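Margin note from the TA: students keep mixing up input and output lines. Inputs are the sequences; the output is the structure of the whole complex. Example:
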Amino acid sequence: MARVPFRAALVVFGLAALMAGCASPTYAPAPYKAAQDRFGRIELPAAGKTVVVCPVIDGLSLENRKQLSPTFTPWTYVTEALEAELRASGVKPVRATFAFGPGFREWREAVQKQAVAGENKVYLGSELRQLFPAIWIMDAELISPKGEVLFAKRALSSVWGNLAVDEQQVVHMMLRQILADPRFKAALQ
Amino acid sequence: MKALFVILLGLAGAGCVSSNALEHYYFQREPVRVAVIPCANATDEPAASIIFNKACEEQLRKRGFDVVEADRVVTFASASGLTVRELPDLKPSRLSAELKAEYLLYTRITRWATKYHVVQGSSVVSGSCWLVEGPTEALIWQSGWHREQQSGNGGGDLLGMLIDAAVTAAANAAFDVCGQMGTDAANTSVLTLPSPGFEPVAPAP
């Protein structure tokens, strides 16, 4: 008689431990620090130039979202990280305030609609496609006010095997693939 | 009415497919060229570097990448007055431009040995690889690997264990277990690389 409650308690305890381990929609990266010395500064030739940064399109799957902390907003995190790196490189980021649909095509249309004729700005749009601690994937486009695509790229950063994940490095390397690309630099000028 | 519904459904389907296909195509580019930089080999086994590089090259080709072999990188180094040991210190942007490869695959081998410790024989290989995008010098992918094989140690008396360990160590050395484990590590690591063509083509006019 005494054995049953003990076993039941053991099973309940085991299940609780298992659930605590499995159901962990808690991932949220630490605040991003731009221009860390260990990665080297991203040199951009167009110092003083204004780039309109459009909030990152959230293209994460439902499965990916389930693993993130409910209080963490990925698009805010990545938009702010992009702006911080641009600022550190001497470029002035201005956050876009106009609304746009959930894709690059809709975003290009929205830019064209709100752009004033003759304005000399470039618009940076991006879409976050995956965000796990060890795999981040993001698409980015730089376009003119007329919606002409000046630069486009898929950036990704991943860590496999028995290596520890350096979160700041993963995010920085993803942004570096966009901002340090010679074609991006040429498009900025 | 039914026919109209089918046509509308068909049109909607066609619209969805073409839109997705366009976006997908937009972010593709091929072929992606990867230069295999000769391993930085911190072990006493000079063959480790060759075995690992060859396995990576083969697996990269199987995955659809265009490969600049480590041998060609060595030739480039010699022609430029550099030693292979100096290659990892070279700026990736310069190395990538010289080799005409968008990506550089680096490897560091830290362990590659078969050892016999009284009652236990073991073979171990370990290291890490990382892929750098040349023009941006950004780290795209990194992978740590470790393989280990120990003697059976099936129990029994001390003499049995000694014989078992010695036989395992001898067999591991004779059959180049390290080489097999290293090749396996290279294959599995390269399999985790992102698919070739993760770069966009020039934007469509």
